[in-house]
Amino acid sequence: MNYPLTFKQYSDALKEDRLMGLKCKVCGSITVPPKMACRNCASFEIEPMAMKGTGKIRTYTSVFVPSEGRETECPYIIAMVELDEGPWIMGNLKGVTPASAGLDVIGKSVKMGHEVFPGDKYSAGEGARPVFTIV
């Protein structure tokens, strides 16, 4: 099977602060991060598209127990962001601590950047992940 957007290509684009998604030629839905098929209709007729990397926080959670290799980063916030193009994506929220975060964070506009996280024993190595800051 030919992947129109591999996870490596997605990660490489993130390292340049570019967010890539997949637009379905059948239903018009946008899938991000990349998958083999459209998240809405399961069509394989999908093509890569550049996204703005901006949106609004819809919910968040605070992390106090870190995953392996991220012990020095705790505590931190993970936000679910509804992108301007429609899909929701998860990423770390920078510039806000769990102690200062309240319900006022919900609905705030954010822009995407990236961080490169080291791999662990469960992954294939390092990769870029989206991080968001409030604008």
3D architecture notes:
This protein has 135 residues and is mostly beta strands. Helix content is 6%, strand content 41%. It has one helix spanning 7-14; strands at residues 19-24, 30-31, 46-51, 54-63, 76-83, 88-94, 109-117, 127-134. A hairpin with a 4-residue loop joins strand 5 and strand 6. The longest helix has 8 residues, at 7-14. It is globular.
Count of DSSP strands: 8
Low-confidence regions: none
CATH architecture of the largest domain: Beta Barrel
Major sheet description: 5 strands, mixed, barrel
End-to-end distance: 40 Å
Individual helix count: 1
Structural class computed from helices and strand pairing: mainly beta
The proportion of strand residues reads: 35-45%
Q: Averaged pLDDT, please?
A: 92
Give the overall shape: globular
Please give the domain count: 2
Produce the secondary structure layout.
Blueprint: H1 7-14, E1 19-24, E2 30-31, E3 46-51, E4 54-63, E5 76-83, E6 88-94, E7 109-117, E8 127-134
Q: What descriptive keywords fit this protein?
A:
1 helix, mainly beta, OB fold (Dihydrolipoamide Acetyltransferase, E2P), single chain, 135 residues, 3-stranded antiparallel sheet
What's this entry about, in short?
This protein is mainly beta. The chain contains one helix and eight strands. It folds into two domains: 51 residues, no CATH class; 83 residues, Beta Barrel (OB fold (Dihydrolipoamide Acetyltransferase, E2P)), CATH 2.40.50.840.
